[in-house]
Here is the input.
Amino acid sequence: MKSAHPAARPFWLVLLFTCLLSLNAHAVDDDENIDEMDEVTPEELSYEDIPVDERIFLREWPKVPFNTAFFDYTPEQIEARWDEFMVGIRAPFPSADYLEYMISNYPEIVEGVEAFNGDFEDFSQKNIHVWRLFLRGDLQQAREEGMKLGVIGLYPAMFAQILQAIYLTERQSDKYMMLQDVANKVREHFHILERAEDDPIAAEIVAFTKLGYAYALARIAEESPVPVIVFRRYIGKIKGGAEEVVELIPDHPLGHAFRAGVDAGIMRRVGRATGRITYGARSTVVDESFGKAFEMAPDIPILNYEYANALIYMSRKRDLNQAYDYLARATRYTPAWSMDALDTMYAFKRLQEVRLFDEQYRSFRSFERQRRRFSRVTDRNLTNVMTAPLTMDMMEHPEKYALPPQEH
Here is the structure.
C-alpha cells in the first residue's frame, strides 16, 4: 500500500481538528456528542477505496453453519416462491422473457459473456442456478458461477459475497476488502444504470444495484473512525444511495429500512444534534421508514434486529426494553433461505452484545469505543456468527484475542 503523500497530511490534521470542534460544539451529554477520536493513521486517509488483495478470493471460504439441504429448492420451487424469498430485497426473477427484454435494450450486460449463446431459456436456467446456490447457502460457489454470467449474474454473486463478508469472514480486514470489492464491481456498471433509471421494467434491477453498493459501503463505514468516514465521503454515498432506492421502488421494504438505518447510524456515530444539523439525520425519519418497512414485510428477521439497533443508536438505554423485544423476535423466525438463517443467527449474537452493554456499561459511547478497539486490535469481525459474543474480558484485554498474522 502507498503511504500518504506529504501534501495530504495537513488535510487530515485539519480534518481531525474539525471533528474535534464538532465534538465540542454539539456536545450535550456523555452519550449525545460525537465519538471521541478513534486512532487513525495517515495511510487510512491516503485512499478513498480500500485496496483489495485478490488472494482472498482464491482461498476456500468458511461454510455456512447449517445444512444447505434445508434450503435447496428446485428451479420450479424457486420460481413459485420467488416473491416470498425476495420480499425484502426485491430482486427481479431472471425469466427468459425478462432477460430477453434486458439484453435487447441493454446489450452491454452480456458483452464478453461466454455463457450466453443467444438462447434466453438456457441463460435463464443458468441464472436461476446461481440463485439456487445463493438461497441454499453455497455462497462462494454462487459468487464464482454468478461472475460468469455478466451483469445479471453479478447481482446474486455480489449479495452472496456481502453475506459471506458480514456473517462468515473471520477477519475484519478481509471483511472490509470483500465489501469494497462489491462496491467496486457494482460501480463499474453505473453507466448502464443511468440509461435504465427511467425504464420501469429495469427499475428493480437498478434499485437492487444501488442497494448493494450503498449497503456494502455502509457496513464498512459503521465501524470506521469518524475522520475516515468523512474523508472517504461515505455518508453522502450511502445516504444518497438509500434515498434513490426508495425513489425508484416506493414499496421496497429493505430500501425503507436501509434508509432509516442510515440516519440511525449517523446518530450512533456523531450524536443526534450533529447528525441532524450536519447530515439531516432525524429520528422521525427512522421511525416512519421502519414503520413502512414493517407494513410491507413484517416477517423478516433483519428488519427486527436493524430496528432494535436503531432504537439503541437513537435513544441509548431509554428504549432498551423495546430493543430487546425486537432482537428476541428476530431470533424466533423459521428461516426460508440462507440470508434469513444468517440474519437470525446474528440477531442472537447481537442480543448477547446488547446485554453486555446493558449490564456492564453506563455509557453507550464507552461501550462502542471499546467494541471498535477490540476489533481494531484483534482484527476480528464482530458480526461473524460463528464466533463467541463479546465478554468483558475480551473488551478489557483485546490483545489476548488477537488473530495471528495472515498467511498467504
About this structure: The chain is about 65% helix and 0% strand. The first helix runs from residue 9 to 26. Residues 1-35 have pLDDT under 50 and may be disordered. Residues 6-48+69-401 form one domain.
